[in-house]
Amino acid sequence: xxxxxxxxxxxxxxxxxxxxxxxxxxxxxxxxxxxxxxxxxxxxxxxxxxxxxxxxxxxxxxxxxxxxxxxxxxxxxxxxxxxxxxxxxxxxxxxxxxxxxxxxxxxxxxxxxxxxxxxxxxxxxxxxxxxxxxxxxxxxxxxxxxxxxxxxxxxxxxxxxxxxxxxxxxxxxxxxxxxxxxxxxxxxxxxxxxxxxxxxxxxxxxxxxxxxxxxxxxxxxxxxxxxxxxxxxxxxxxx
Length: 239
Description:
The chain is mostly helical.
């Protein structure tokens, strides 16, 4: 699609004309990636360290993956909040969401948990279980994210929201992060051109996902309005 560039407790959804909160937070975390690239470029251009700059590219990969992981976690929870603010009858939810809430309550060791479903209590329970599972996510690869969004939003193929036609590109990026996290400076070398390619890959996918989720939430809530604007800047200072 053509891109037009121009919190963690159940709460009321914002009304400002902006992309998702998840996208804004993604840009905030990505700032460190940009600063690391700037530092690398400065040292290289001034012949201050043509060698021995791998710690900067490795650190940037770690931060970029943190931004990707946090974006998906935040997007899931924000989407649940949005639906909860626009739907009051649990029967209006899709079958998969209802099955997930029901199963989680049945499996809960708290014997009085079903009572919390009364009224609109299902909203907090839904959000609570989703937050638990997002907190457990530590490898944001395609299949794990697909399962998470299918479980809690009933989206059968979350990967269809992505910009890339090959989710393995993201999986390779996440694997490189894991290699660095476990092996430090003994991990495979990350060259600047590879880092920039990964950064473009992640940013393009985040924008595509964010835009398509706005449409999906509009459909799921039978609303006449999009969940958020579909105009995106990549500079956090524009917001």
